[in-house]
Design goal:
Blueprint (H helix, E strand, L loop, with lengths): L3 H27 L14 E4 L4 E2 L5 E9 L3 H11 L4 E4 L12 E8 L2 E8 L5 E9 L3
Antiparallel strand pairs: 1-3, 2-3, 3-7, 4-5, 5-6, 6-7
Amino acid sequence: MPGPSTALRLIATLLTFSVLSATSIVSAQDVYNLTGLPTYPNLSKAKMDGVARTDAIGHWCTRFAAETFDPLEVVEAWYRKALVHASETDLNHDERYKNYDRLSGIKLALGIDSVTVFRTANQSTTSIELFRCSPPR
């Protein structure tokens, strides 16, 4: 039977791993999606950009970027259902994503706002980007 110091070290190690795994799970949920576009419910990682950026046309856009371990097809289906009236484009035909190697994914657009869901051949997660844009000034 292990001694008291061994048992305490084991408990401390288990608590550390519990806290670390809980932190990685809640970190994506603690990031606020300020775009107003729907957030996929099973995220492993997420980040809201701190500043808006202009695109090539002059729109000011905010971006929420996230990842999930769920398969690409599952995430695409969820967003198609969440954004019923969006137009859909294969990302292989989108100028912004032309440099990605062996890319699979879609862009769903609602006016000047959009959601992209994609995965590359060497990627273990599905990437999600939500863009909320304002008209050019």
